[in-house]
Design a protein that fits this description.
Blueprint: H1 3-8, H2 14-41, E1 44-48, E2 54-57, E3 63-66, H3 78-84, E4 90-92, H4 98-101, H5 104-111, E5 114-118, H6 119-129, E6 141-142, E7 147-150, E8 155-161, E9 167-168, E10 177-178, E11 183-189, E12 194-197, H7 208-213, E13 218-222, H8 231-241, E14 245-249, H9 261-270, E15 276-277, E16 285-288
Parallel strand pairs: 3-4, 4-5, 5-6, 12-13, 13-14, 14-15
Antiparallel strand pairs: 1-2, 1-16, 2-3, 7-8, 8-11, 9-10, 11-12
The protein binds zinc ion.
The site of zinc ion has 6 residues, from helix 4.
Length: about 290
């Protein structure tokens, strides 16, 4: 045996190593599209916690909370639900009132979720309520008409107007801190539906502009009356936005929020609106089809 043959005896040959490496690359290359295909085939999950609070789990497994007031009077499992929220990517808030900011700070501090809000609202939630400032930077802060592309393009959020108020209060009796103008949110999910959360608002004619730029699959619309539009005006809003499905929110939490899904259904029918009405129970999770 030559010296060279002695040195390589008992070791896998270089050719063998290269063949193995090539095989691994081929297997990974074949597996990855299947893996991504599997992820993309997952459906979006939507959970309603009452009032305007929703959890959205995207087809890619990202977790979003919108107006996360879980400790509201109608959701009984708030404590357990909050304790179980270990992974949250984004907390989105439409305006500064306590029934929308809700448990955002507590959840943000624990999960390190980034805060998505307009500039003034984000600043108010950080300065007055203590949301960690490093989780509310320019990446997730925008303003009306602007679109933020987030989570490596898995989600795009556009801020649109809402006719309401906005102010952040640390306590019920404390004076409100300026929090800019309220917003609605258009949340477009990659490989999933585009969702329009109206925030708290009255009907306004510029809602028609939403459908000019976005094909809305799901419209989450306030119907409770008193502080927002009621069933009739909400039905007119649906007519302007023309979504595929509509889910009512912001009703039944307090006695003054008198709008009901039944009254809303009547108003939709009166106007021959094609959008499918999909009522949700508090705490219910539904799957949303792809766009
Ligand atoms: Zn509200």
């Amino acid at each position: 045996m030559s010296n060279a043959e002695l040195m390589t005896a008992g070791k896998p040959s270089l050719l063998g190593q290269r063949t193995c490496a090539s095989l691994v690359i081929i297997v990974v290359a074949l597996a990855r599209p299947n893996l991504f295909g599997l992820l993309w085939s997952m459906e979006t999950q939507l959970t309603w916690y009452g009032q305007s609070a929703f959890k959205i789990v995207t087809p890619g497994g990202k977790v979003l909370l919108v107006d996360p007031w879980l400790t509201n009077p109608v959701f009984e499992n708030a404590k357990d639900e909050i304790a179980g929220l270990n992974h949250v990517d984004l907390v989105l808030v439409t305006h500064g009132h306590s029934d929308h900011v809700g448990n955002a700070v507590e959840i943000g501090k624990r999960t390190r979720a980034k805060l998505v809000a307009t500039f003034d609202l984000s600043a108010a939630i950080v300065s007055a309520l203590g949301y960690p400032s490093e989780l509310a930077d320019v990446e997730t802060t925008g303003h009306m008409g602007g679109t933020l592309t987030l989570l490596r393009g898995d989600i795009a959020v556009t801020f649109v107007p809402a006719w309401h108020g906005s102010g952040v209060s640390k306590e019920e009796t404390a004076p409100a801190v300026y929090a800019g103008t309220p917003s609605g949110l258009i949340i477009a999910l990659r490989h999933g539906p585009t969702i329009y959360h109206t925030g708290d608002t009255d009907l306004f004619s510029d809602m028609a502009l939403v459908s000019r730029f976005h094909k809305i699959d799901i419209m989450l619309v306030c119907i409770g009356d008193h502080f927002t539009m009621g069933p009739a005006r909400a039905a007119e809003a649906v007519k302007l936005v023309n979504p595929r499905e509509v889910i009512p929110m912001h009703y039944g939490t307090f006695p003054v929020l008198t709008g009901t899904p039944e009254a809303f259904e009547r108003e939709l029918k009166k106007r021959k609106i094609k959008a499918k009405l999909r009522g949700m129970k508090v705490g219910e999770t539904i799957t949303l089809p792809k766009s």
